[in-house]
Request: fold
Amino acid sequence: MQLEKFYYDNKIVKYFGNAMLFWGVIGMLMGLYAAIQIYLPASSFDFAPTTFGRIRPVHTNAIIFAFVGNSIFLGVYYSLQRLLKARMFSDTLSWIHFWGWQLIIVSAAVTLFLGYTTGKEYAELEWPIDIAITLVWVVFGINMFGTLIKRREKHLYVAIWFFIATWVTVAMLHIVNSFEIPVSFLKSYSWYAGVQDALVQWWYGHNAVAFFLTTPILGLMYYFLPKAANRPVYSYRLSIIHFWSLIFLYIWAGPHHLLYTALPEWAQSLGVVFSVMLIAPSWGGMLNGLFTLRGAWDKVREDPVLKFFVVAITCYGMATFEGPLLSLKSVNAIAHYTDWIVAHVHIGGLGWNGFMAFGIMYYLIPKMFDTPLYSKKLATNHFWLGTLGIVIYALPMYWAGFEQAQMWKSFTEDGVLKYKFLETVTNIVPLYITRSVGGLLYIIGVFIMIYNLIKTAKAGNFIANEAAEAAPLLKVQSQQGEYWHNVIERKPLMMLLLSLILVAIGGAIEFLPTFLVKSNIPTIESVKPYTPLELQGRDIYVREGCYTCHSQMIRPFRDEVARYGEYSKAGEFVYDHPFQWGSKRTGPDLAREGGKYPDSWHYNHMLQPTSMSPGSIMPTYSWLLDDDLDTASTPAKIRAMITLGVPYPKNYDKQANADLMKQADGIAVNLQKDKIKTPSNKEIIAVIAYLQRLGTDIKLEKKAD
Amino acid sequence: MKFIYYIEKVSGVDVYGLFSLILFLAFFTIMLIWVYKVKDKTIDELKNIPLN
Reply:
């Protein structure tokens, strides 16, 4: 059999690696900045782009799509070629993929800083960038599948199935969650509203975790761990079982982000049950990884790469045990909206994603530069610093989460709430400070790694194109009695299709009923669309990222009803494009904020939160008082809403601004009564209008009783 | 889209639910049987692909 000579492309791998490190540092520094702002709100410098509400999405997008994203491509481009014994299908596509992705990241950073956001977590990027993501993802897919088709290795190793499932599911998630109607070049409204939007969003959001932060990394684990340990994976059978179970079950878990909210009970229950079942396939992956090292633990003592992998896989196991537990309604009742969730996220992010990325870099750079790692000692120091950083990050956040939940739910003997919301915030500030120390240690570790890798690269010679030889593939006839999974493993397109069907099932079953079955979204007579002024105010709320600190969803608990008012009903959110239920209460819930305070309170609060709430950690929003409201956009926004089915009167777009001015003038008059002089065309007027509307629709109904 | 009872208007709609359940059970049952039955030699070949 004549062996074919060919070359693996290492240059693209190196570039993805550099991009990963670059964006990783930026993303982590943004995270540190956000963490510091929570106890030093003055560090936003009264400047819109650097407020927490803008920084937080920059952090999450940079970490998820720029850091982990580039780490995925780094690992996939390296391992795919070698597992298939073929160079990437097209070098041109490789470079379009690389530069396209980096361009997307840059545009993400710029737009997010400037407040161009959809207001949906991990899907904040506006519609032009969504389109760019789709195009680049397709380029990636063509490159990957082209390589699969021209491969010289007959069988698709398990890592490849994970890559295929990742590709197809991310495509599905991104497209479905990004259904939005553009209003202007950088503004759109979610096609979905209220409860449906929440369900689609968290179907997407949880599966961004599943299929962007987990499955591709599991694929990388199945390649790099055996390579680094020089032994095969513990159980191939287990990898088959846990792969199919994982991709089927994961999709259904989304509703566990919405427990005790206005999401219909049946959807919540599905989310709980499937999340609990998910322990099995997740731990299948963890055990497969850890058992691969059985009898070889002495290697872990010597090799920093294996140290990182072991802690990464362990953190994966912890997070995938904690996740299902958090999905139990009783646990969720305590944890939701608290810093416990933040701890959970960062065990996974810092531990699993970060450490896998670092381990892979420590493995790859010496290999690609054909030289030993500059300093094993420094790498080991990085390992310990990073591990310590994870612990010092997570433990304060667990503590803070428990404290918050407990204080929120405390009543005095007389049956009134024991603590004001603000007290529950100031109480945990020391823990916020400690957490940022953990993050700092983690980042210092990353800098040590970068130094180590640069010294390694300088000492070596980069192999841009690595020579390889392999026999070409013969056309394979199906053998008698051939194991069924082998058949699929030989047929990448079939693998793609089957994976797609499996992941689509969960989404379809959970969604379609909420769209089609009336009883799932009970409409409330008294709930009316937002007025034009309130709509503009809502868009400012989204722009400033208020939802990153404030929730708008009162759960049916005694303490929440006592603190915030009547619990939230699904029918109240039917016109909310997008929904803004929020995930975190760094600040109090705002679902029934309307009418709680006079207009002047809100005016003063936005200008200087501590003037109304002493000790508040909210940043200042003084530009809202100075900047003019963009009323030119009102007609287009109303028309978009009408297209989405919001029942404004016909041709209301022509009337809208007149009504807007009238309502704005009314608020200005109110402020005047409290000695506040302001023109009625400022953004703050719109924000006040929106805040004063929140939750008031059903108050009217109650009064009628 | 109007909020009406779409799904119950499809005659015999139960068959979709039944089909889904059967498909799910069938897929995973067959998968488990085959995993149980596959030869060790095949497994060894597959798990060593990254090391070759």
Remarks:
- Strands of chain A lie at 4-9, 180-184, 187-190, 465-470.
- The longest helix of chain A spans residues 194-229.
- The interface with chain B takes residues 79, 82-83, 153, 155, 157-159, 222-223, 226-227, 230-233, 236-237, 240-241, 244-245, 248, 483-486, 489, 505, 509, 512-513, 515-519, 521, 523, 645 of chain A (CB under 8 Å).
